[in-house]
Structures are given as C-alpha cells and as structure tokens.
Amino acid sequence: MLFENNNFNDNYTMDLTFLNIPLNDDKNVSKLYSAKEGFLKGNMFKDEFDPYKNYSIATIVPKNSKEEVELKIMELDFAINDLNLYLDLHPEDKEMFDLFKKYIKEVNRYKEEYINMVGPLCITDVTGSNYNWLASWPWEKGGNI
C-alpha cells in the first residue's frame, strides 16, 4: 500500500506560526483585501501578498451586465476559497467564519441573478418544468448574451 510503513505519527500537529496570522484577533477582517482586490491579486490576506517583480495589477472591465455578474461571482468564489483555506487551519475564528458565510450568501444571490439573466451555471441549476440545459449554453450563443 502507498502509505504503509510511513512512520507518520497520528498525533502530529503542524507549526503554523510562519503564517503570521494572529488567531481570534478582532482585526483579522481588516487584514483582508476586498473580494475584488483579493481576486485581482490572487490573495485575500494583505500580509501574505508578495507582488512579483514589476508586475502591476490589471483592472478587469466587464463589457456588459452579464460579464459584471460573472466577474462578481468569480471574485466572491475566490474569496470563499481563500477563506476556506484559512478556516481549515483556524476553525475557531468566528469573525472569519462570519465573513465566509456572508460571501456565500452574496455569491448565491449573484448566481441566482445570472441564472435569471442567462440560464443555468451548472446542471443542478436547471429550473422550470422542462429540461432546458442544452437550450441555455452561453457559449452556443456567442458568449455575449
């Protein structure tokens, strides 16, 4: 078996002090970028962002309302995933968990808006009395509805 005789101790705990993120600090949320800025920088945590050489952050400009909603969904999904990684290491941080839940509610609202505007984002979003997944693929309509 792959992990047989690996000498791992089941009681092993990892030292995470190198992350430099204080636990249960009321100022944790202030150490975060907004979902939009975190998405553009690829990191929600201000203390952890390290720009590459002379790289400058580009601004994404949506061309229409569909792209605005898509961008908002991508920004919030990124923030949710980054906070999820943090919460995996710090499950007791209520402030970050509250922000995590807030972003989930917000992204669900934007996904609902997208579904009403364009159609389903994924197969589980199919609504109505007919199977309409094939009729609403955005890329079949040129991608700019």
Give a quick precis of the structure.
This protein is mainly α. Helices cover 39% and strands 0% of the residues. It has one domain.
What features would you describe in this structure?
By secondary structure, this protein is an all-alpha fold. It has one domain (28-141). It has helices at residues 35-41, 65-89, 94-117. Helix 1 crosses helix 2 (65-89). It is globular, with a radius of gyration of 20 Å. The relative contact order is 0.12. Residues 7-26 have low confidence and may be disordered.
Task: Give descriptors for this structure.
3 helices; 145 residues
The computed structural class is: mainly alpha
**How much helical structure, as a percent, in the residues?**
25-40%
The radius of gyration computed from the alpha-carbon positions, rounded to a whole number of angstroms, is 20 Å
Largest sheet: none
Counted by DSSP, the helix tally is 3
H/E element sequence:
HHH
Which residues sit in consecutive blocks of at least 5 with pLDDT less than 50? Answer: 7-26
DSSP strand content: under 5%
Instruction: Provide mean pLDDT, rounded.
Output: 79
Topology, number of strands: 0
How many domain units?
1
Beginning-to-end CA distance, first to last residue: 52 Å
- Overall geometry comes to globular
What topology does this entry show?
Blueprint: H1 35-41, H2 65-89, H3 94-117
